Amino acid sequence: MNNNSRSQNTSLGIVGFGAFGQLAARHLGQHFKVSAYDPSPGLASVAKQLGVPLASLRSVSQADVILIAAPVSSFEQVVSEIAIACKPGALIVDVGSVKVGPAEIMRRLLPKHVDIIATHPLFGPQSAINGIEGLKIAICPIQGKQHVRLAAFLRNALGLTVIMTTPEDHDREAAVVQGLTHLIAKVLLRMGPLPTRMTTKSFDLLSEAISMVQHDAPEVFEAIEKANPYAGVVRRRFFDLATSMSVELESALRTSPHNKTGQ
Amino acid sequence: MNNNSRSQNTSLGIVGFGAFGQLAARHLGQHFKVSAYDPSPGLASVAKQLGVPLASLRSVSQADVILIAAPVSSFEQVVSEIAIACKPGALIVDVGSVKVGPAEIMRRLLPKHVDIIATHPLFGPQSAINGIEGLKIAICPIQGKQHVRLAAFLRNALGLTVIMTTPEDHDREAAVVQGLTHLIAKVLLRMGPLPTRMTTKSFDLLSEAISMVQHDAPEVFEAIEKANPYAGVVRRRFFDLATSMSVELESALRTSPHNKTGQ
């Protein structure tokens, strides 16, 4: 594995060929010999279009680098199957939105002879629509030393901004970042179609933020809220602050003289 | 008054030389002979810098066009003083965030021989920092026919996007647009400093939206929440939806098996 780009001889096995797995194949195809595994039907044509052969989990798990982009519900099962098939010296990387739980699972189930890096690309197909240069990725080294070279590759070959962190620090910050974005988006979506005509710049930004996450799979929201150990605190704080603000406002507006003008 | 630009001989009196009055002077100085009135001390140097003479309310009220950018608290008083001093055929325009109340006050207090247009520029000094071209302004004709020429001027000379509407339609839509932006900003500001490192694109947009309104004068929020007749419904709906979502989430997360992985 070189710093700037890898030889087409390095094999990359993508486990889970959904929206993110396909995005990864699109950007990593020129750097690796890519294959992918996914149990879902109907992926043949997109795989063909991307030039990625679909293979069994066992076969994909024998790659030099294994990228786990599997859904939350099958993560532990998938890791235990990779654990049996992977070869010594392999690099195993996951890409989930939450890091404490998956890092613990990978550390517990994978053999000592592989390197493990937990990552969270802070983007998805929606934000990567104009390319991934300058986008952010959080990296948590779990086992082995390959994170140094991976970080250099992500910076130099893909142009990503790399944030080195730990699963705990990641989840603490992501609980606020993703927790709040999704909570606000969910509340606003329930308010019905938002205005688009008489809008301010700040409201347009708010609408854009919401539209970026509103098509996320329900599992993403569930993962953020359920699997991030810090999500509950952030969620309850948000709702508590909203409630106390509501009470304050209603009482302030009741007691003060009604003012019919506005600026 | 020409369609494309006005002669320097048309006089414009700005009543209220705060942040918005100054912004107006900056963009209208080349089209009008501008003077301004403001009872606050300490405005001499900014007025000088903008080349705008400060004058009495009585003198400013004798202009061909009077722009009322006064704070909510003095709006009715200011309009009643303008009513005495303004000349026949004058055009009187306000620029507040709420339109039903101010339109009613202007219609009630101003003489029949002037034209009245209630407007809401959907921007402020913050969003106009890179110029005003393409920004939006809502216009509600209240009395007379000068709105046709005003709209043409705003479009052609200033490059604004003009939205013709009524005070009621404006306030109904603004209650959602401005009400939600300010409510969300206020709740998030109470959460403390927001993360800036491990952020997603959607969270960055959210943060930007908040930073645009967080320095608004407290009167702006008060005006939106108190003076917009539709604000209460929007506010209560937002808080009710937040509360019911909180209850739903807590119960869903309690009953379902804890899933420690995330994607």
Helix content of chain A: 40-55%
Residue-averaged pLDDT of chain A, rounded? 91
User: How many domains of chain A?
Assistant: 2
Instruction: Give the largest interface.
Output: A-B, 88 and 88 residues
What's the tally of helices of chain A? Answer: 10
CATH class of the largest domain in chain A: Alpha Beta
Q: What's the count of strands of chain A?
A: 7
Structural class assignment of chain A: alpha/beta
* Shape verdict of chain A: globular
> Multimeric state of these chains?
homodimer
Instruction: Let me know the CATH homologous superfamily of the largest domain in chain A.
Output: NAD(P)-binding Rossmann-like Domain
The gyration radius over C-alpha positions of chain A equals: 22 Å
- What is the element string of chain A, with H for helices and E for strands? EHEHHEHEHEEHEHHHH
Biggest sheet features of chain A? 7 strands, mixed
> Strand portion of chain A, in percent?
5-15%
- The CATH topology of the largest domain in chain A is what? Rossmann fold
Unreliable stretches of chain A: 1-5, 258-263
Can you name the CATH architecture of the largest domain in chain A?
Answer: 3-Layer(aba) Sandwich
Report how far apart the termini of chain A are.
Answer: 61 Å
Going across the major beta sheet of chain A, what is the strand order? 2-1-3-4-5-6-7
Keywords (chains A, B): Oxidoreductase
Protein name (chains A, B): Prephenate dehydrogenase
Domain Prephenate/arogenate dehydrogenase (chains A, B): 10-263
Organism (chains A, B): Roseobacter sinensis
